[in-house]
């Protein structure tokens, strides 16, 4: 497997794709990971990509304000791709669905996976990795359907499509189609080993409560108190910061909410949820589902933790590389909210990722929800997280 990246900041969609494809031979090009900011037309991008790369597996989504590769952080308008050259034994195949079509999410996911497997004559086989990009709203249901289809926990990495101002100007795509309300899934059967990592950069505070009323992504009450009031009180008691409703969103990347999902050597780890807005009834609308009866914790994170956490996730993945095999390339997913909070410091994150990967090719969009695999093997959707996969040269990896 050979990885490479290309970036274009040309304003017009057609010209930008042509710049990426310039002097690029398509022989042995097995896969393209493709990301772009909202200034570009997904329809035009898709049309040009499929015209220029008619026999290549493509998966991608829109990214919040910028994209990172091993060559730097690029502020939008920008589009970037990472190509994978591979032998015929390394197979990538995609599924695509639009949520507006009839049928439940579970049915749509199952059919998308079946179509992907049939395309490459791999029906009945289990992929080594799944890459998932969906528009926000159904990520938990999609992941549950994936786990049920294969009846085993396959490593998943992914991120929810993003725009700049949460106005629905997001989109996903594969070579099979594009949509502003849909799902793109890639099943990878690589001929090289890989390792994944998934984590947040936040620590729990002393403030813990039980969700007493919720509906999907609407957190209505904590310990019988309207969620907005409890959230504001927790922040005030922990930090001394008094916030009004209109400025509450300015603080969510500093004080997200977390649910403990396990522990490693006695140290708990958490799945984070990101408040999106306040309803008139005092509920918090989130970017992930919650359930009544769950315990929820106010989390906090410093800028230094947010800067260093990408490196920590990659170190987690590299810890499985016990033979010190050569790194070939990586796909990382970084939360848009954390990126926005860091501002120009995101360039430090880029530098750390590049250094840890020995300056090998990588690509990283900024998303409105992250999917990954925790250390205990559970696949999950969370917010303010980072998810990564690293491909290696050696065949000898820790199980």
TrEMBL record:
Q: Which InterPro entries match?
A: FIST_C, FIST_domain_N
| All residue ranges annotated as the FIST domain in the record | 26-226
Ranges for domain FIST C-domain:
227-374
**PANTHER family the UniProt entry points to:** BLR0328 PROTEIN (PTHR40252:SF2)
Designated name of the protein:
FIST N domain protein
> Which species is this UniProt entry from?
Vibrio quintilis
Q: What lineage is this protein's organism placed in?
A: Bacteria, Pseudomonadati, Pseudomonadota, Gammaproteobacteria, Vibrionales
């Amino acid at each position: 497997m050979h990885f490479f990246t290309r970036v274009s900041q040309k304003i017009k969609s057609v010209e930008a794709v042509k710049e990426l494809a310039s002097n690029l031979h398509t022989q042995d090009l097995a896969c393209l990971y493709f990301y772009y900011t909202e200034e570009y037309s997904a329809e035009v991008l898709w049309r040009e990509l499929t015209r220029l790369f008619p026999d290549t597996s493509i998966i991608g989504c829109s990214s919040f304000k910028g994209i990172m590769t091993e060559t730097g952080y690029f502020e939008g308008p920008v589009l970037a791709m990472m190509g994978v050259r591979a032998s015929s034994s390394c197979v990538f195949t995609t599924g695509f669905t639009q949520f507006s079509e009839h049928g439940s999410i579970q049915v749509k996911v199952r059919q998308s996976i079946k179509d992907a497997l049939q395309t490459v004559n791999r029906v009945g086989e289990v992929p080594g990795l799944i890459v998932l990009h969906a528009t926000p709203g159904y990520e938990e249901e999609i992941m549950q359907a994936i786990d049920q289809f294969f009846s085993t926990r396959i490593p998943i990495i992914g991120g929810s499509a993003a725009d700049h101002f949460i106005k629905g100007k997001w989109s996903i795509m594969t070579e099979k189609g594009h949509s502003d309300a849909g799902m793109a899934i890639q099943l990878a059967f690589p001929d090289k080993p890989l390792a994944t990592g998934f984590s947040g950069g936040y620590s729990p505070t002393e403030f813990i409560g039980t969700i007493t009323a919720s509906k999907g992504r609407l957190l209505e009450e904590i310990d019988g108190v309207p969620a907005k009031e409890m959230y504001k009180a927790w922040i005030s008691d922990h930090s001394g910061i008094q916030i009004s409703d209109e400025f509450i969103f300015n603080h969510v990347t500093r004080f997200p909410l977390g649910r403990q999902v396990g522990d490693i050597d006695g140290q708990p780890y958490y799945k984070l949820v990101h408040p999106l807005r306040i309803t008139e009834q005092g509920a918090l609308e989130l970017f992930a589902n919650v359930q009544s009866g769950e315990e929820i914790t106010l989390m906090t994170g410093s800028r230094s933790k947010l800067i260093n956490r990408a490196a920590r996730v990659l170190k987690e993945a590299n810890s499985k590389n016990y033979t010190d095999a050569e790194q070939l390339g990586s796909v990382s997913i970084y939360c848009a909210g954390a990126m926005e909070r860091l501002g120009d410091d995101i360039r430090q994150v880029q530098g750390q990722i590049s250094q840890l990967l020995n300056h090998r090719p990588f690509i990283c969009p900024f998303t409105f929800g992250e999917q990954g695999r925790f250390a205990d093997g559970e696949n999950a959707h969370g917010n303010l997280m980072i998810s990564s996969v690293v491909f290696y040269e050696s065949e000898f990896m820790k199980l």
